[in-house]
Design a protein that fits this description.
Length: 509
């Protein structure tokens, strides 16, 4: 299946993650404008030297670090059912936001006019500011148009704003009632489990009946919420019908988006989605609490996300189930982390992440601390779990042989930027970026004719990175344009993207 035929799970645009340092006004630019899509059911590998920002990128996607700038759209959950606060704020401040976006767009057009009128040398100096303004303009525009669509062009905002506010209120009620339903369903499942035992059936029969009635009532309320939401959507469609002949309206309408922008969520809202997006840490030794048993470690997420109450017997069955899926014996459940080998500890870390049945998992150097023989076992386990549970992975590593084995696509990072992105087969067959070429040439091999080539020079400081292409200080193909102009992110062949002025085999100079 082609990439454009797959469902996008995460759409990341111009993601930036800056960390302040002691000197006022200076930042570590760990991620500096990353744009890519992650498709449902794929394994996206991420490679690069230590310090290039791979782990920061993985943690920022999950909002363990709140991103400094950019957009991270998540399509694994319903925007209506989450009803995030930023939607309400956009509707309430719509006129003001539109005025601010208009000024930003005018600034970009002014810079572009100056750029077009300048000579080649002046264009090199104007390019970066123009590009940054363009990105800021685009982000501001999308934050609005994704929610209001073609109504961004309407002069009289009153009728649509009234309906949008009603719509948010309906979504908020739906969200609150869905959240209220979860503990009722949890308690009913537990009561039914206890009632299934012959000796406890009379004791729990009345509780099952009471909770069933409560759940049914809750479902009816949720159904009424959905009907109210559907009615408001019908009114919005009637309002849109007045503008369907306007091509400008329809152009913006096509950009309406039901994805959730993770970067704009509050901390409690992020926690509601945390069970859908999990993290496997690099070190299986320090990432496990030495004072907790394996059963407690794996069940911690199940309790935190209200799948079970503490010490429920039914939870024990779920813990043992996920342990078996990850190749852990039942009798391990009461043992402590120090009683296990590195490979077994990593299986425990995997079981802990998968216990809440996530859709997306960041595997951060998940096998780098293990022996080579154990690495293959963990990699095969991850592949099997991906197939059986329909998981999507972001697999972070510095080992190209590992990433080639497990990944469908591979992204190459350098000093906070994505420099190349392609299918695993395409990247190894024909790297277009000099940095990717250098990484591939540094892989040890048994071939007699191939010499091991080590990339010379150190990675520049992410606090004060080089202007233009960040790799130009170590690139043997560097020319004047590389020193001052940031290369554009371009598709050089189907689904193969690269950011370089001198693409290998294309316009190498």
């Amino acid at each position: 299946m082609q990439q454009n035929e797959k469902k996008v799970l995460l759409k990341i645009s111009n993601l930036k993650q800056y960390f302040p340092v002691k000197k006022r006004g200076m930042y570590v630019k760990a991620n500096d404008g990353i744009t890519l899509d992650i498709y449902e059911g794929e394994t996206l590998g991420l490679v690069g030297e230590s310090g290039c920002g791979k782990s920061t990128f993985g943690r920022t996607i999950l909002q363990l670090y709140r991103q400094t700038d950019g957009r991270t759209m998540y399509y694994g959950s319903s925007l209506d059912e989450l009803a995030p606060k930023y939607v309400r704020d956009t509707y309430n401040r719509l006129p003001r936001l539109l005025s601010k976006q208009k000024k930003l767009h005018e600034k970009y057009l002014s810079l572009k006019a100056a750029y077009d009128a300048a000579d080649e040398k002046e264009q090199m100096h104007l390019h970066t500011e123009m590009d940054q303004t363009r990105k800021a303009d685009n982000d501001s525009y999308l934050n609005i148009v994704n929610l209001v669509g073609g109504f961004i062009t309407v002069d009289d905002l009153g009728p649509c704003m009234a309906l949008f506010k009603q719509r948010y209120s309906a979504c908020k009620k739906l969200h609150d009632h869905i959240e209220a339903r979860r503990p009722i369903k949890r308690d009913l499942d537990e009561a039914e489990f206890q009632a299934s035992k012959e000796d406890a059936k009379p004791k729990f029969a009345a509780q099952v009946q009471k909770l069933s009635a409560k759940l049914q009532n809750c479902d009816q309320v949720i159904e009424a919420d959905r009907a109210a939401l559907k009615d408001i959507d019908r009114q919005l469609d009637e309002l849109r019908s007045k503008y369907r002949q306007d091509p400008e309206f329809m152009k913006h309408e096509a950009l309406r988006d039901d994805g959730i922008d993770l970067a704009r969520l509050t901390y409690p809202e992020c926690r509601l989605l945390r069970c859908q997006m999990q993290y496997i840490f690099q070190d299986p030794y320090s990432s496990l609490n030495p004072r907790m048993t394996i059963g407690q470690i794996i069940s911690e997420g199940l309790i935190a996300h209200k799948y079970f109450k503490p010490n429920q017997e039914r939870m024990q069955d779920e813990v043992l189930k996920v342990m078996n899926e990850c190749g852990l014996a039942d009798y391990f459940v009461h043992r402590f982390p120090h009683q296990f080998s590195g490979g077994q500890r990593q299986r425990i870390c995997i079981a802990r992440s998968l216990a809440v049945r996530p859709k997306f998992v960041v595997c951060d150097e998940a096998v780098s601390a293990l022996d080579v023989s154990i690495q293959s076992q963990i990699l095969n386990l991850l592949r099997d779990l991906k197939e059986s549970s329909n998981l999507t992975y972001l697999f972070i590593t510095h080992d190209l042989s590992v990433v080639k084995y497990i990944s469908d696509r591979i992204g190459v990072m350098y000093l906070g930027n994505m420099v190349e992105l392609a299918s695993s087969e395409s990247l190894f067959r024909h790297p277009y970026h000099p940095y990717t070429e250098a990484l591939l040439n540094s892989i040890p091999t048994t071939e007699e004719k191939k010499d091991l080539i080590v990339l010379e020079g150190d990675i520049p400081s992410p606090v004060n990175p080089p202007k233009g292409c960040k790799f130009h200080t170590r690139c043997k193909y560097c020319t004047e344009i590389c020193e001052s102009v940031v290369p554009d992110w371009e598709e050089v062949e189907p689904n193969h993207f690269v950011a370089c002025h001198h693409k290998l085999g294309v316009n190498q100079g």
